[in-house]
């Protein structure tokens, strides 16, 4: 490994100061450390956030569930409040990676990294969540901006994400066997304003599927989802699956997610 300095602040104020001075935030390290080993990233200073426990919390605020950025996947999956308020979110967290990843990776790290096949962005977008940072609040629709790209500015840290509680919701994921990332993942959320459907694993980033949303708003049933022909245009095609294969998976996972949400 090349030389770098390592800082481990215990307060958000200290973490913000270090990040603002050019330090690279390190949450769970599931992506950054691998990138450093491959020499794809070479930060001169790492700012380890794991000791900033004020960012590790879950609480209910009115009709929203607020989760701190440093909550680990395993903590979200096992939290009683998450299970009671948005069980689909607990289920999603429990499907991420393997046990080691779930006990190290964090919600904030996943959202900030915006991997095109990550699970959390699908929940953030489908639930119309709000990302809170050290500088501002960002709506889900404005936060994710493409391949590994978000609205975060240099030195800006995610502090929490506020998820509105839906009437019904579910997440279904078809795993890539080796990485356990989503080859396709579909998060379906029924709200008073209609149905939102977010897809991950299909392209350069998470996106909403309007045709499925319209069909499911009219009739929240697996049959309604089955009646939507999902286009392969713009979807990824690689050694794991063609664009046409992914398009078919979106339809299948949407049907299964609706069936799951209906119980």
From TrEMBL:
Residues covered by the FAD-binding PCMH-type domain: 1-168
UniProt xrefs under InterPro entries: CO_DH_flav_C, CO_DH_flav_C_dom_sf, Diverse_Substr_Oxidored, FAD-bd_PCMH, FAD-bd_PCMH-like_sf, FAD-bd_PCMH_sub1, FAD-bd_PCMH_sub2, Mopterin_DH_FAD-bd
Swiss-Prot/TrEMBL keywords: FAD, Flavoprotein, Oxidoreductase
GO terms assigned for molecular function: FAD binding; oxidoreductase activity
Pfam families: FAD_binding_5
Lineage top rank: taxon: Bacteria
PANTHER family in the cross-refs: XANTHINE DEHYDROGENASE SUBUNIT C-RELATED
Protein name: Xanthine dehydrogenase family protein subunit M
């Amino acid at each position: 490994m090349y030389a770098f300095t390592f800082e481990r602040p215990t307060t958000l104020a200290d973490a913000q100061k270090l990040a603002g001075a050019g330090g690279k935030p390190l949450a769970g390290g599931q992506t950054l450390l691998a990138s450093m080993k491959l020499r794809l990233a070479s930060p001169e200073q790492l700012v380890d956030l794991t000791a900033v426990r004020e960012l590790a919390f879950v609480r209910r605020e009115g009709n929203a569930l607020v989760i701190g950025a440093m909550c680990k996947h395993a903590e979200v999956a096992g939290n009683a409040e998450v299970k009671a308020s948005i069980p689909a979110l607990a289920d999603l967290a429990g499907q991420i990676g393997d046990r080691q990843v779930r006990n190290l990776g964090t919600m904030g790290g996943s959202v900030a990294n915006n991997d095109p096949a990550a699970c959390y962005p699908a929940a953030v977008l489908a639930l119309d969540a709000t990302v809170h940072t050290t500088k501002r609040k960002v709506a889900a629709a404005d936060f994710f901006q493409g391949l590994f790209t978000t609205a975060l500015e240099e030195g800006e840290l995610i502090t929490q994400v506020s998820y509105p509680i839906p009437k019904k919701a579910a997440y279904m994921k078809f795993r890539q066997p080796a990485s356990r990332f989503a080859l396709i993942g579909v998060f379906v959320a029924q709200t008073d304003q209609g149905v939102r459907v977010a897809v991950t694993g299909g392209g350069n980033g998470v996106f909403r599927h309007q045709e499925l949303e319209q069909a499911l708003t009219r009739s929240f049933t697996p049959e309604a989802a089955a009646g939507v022909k999902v286009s392969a245009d713009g979807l990824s095609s690689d050694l794991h699956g063609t664009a046409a294969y992914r398009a078919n998976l979106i339809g299948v996972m949407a049907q299964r997610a609706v069936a799951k949400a209906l119980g």
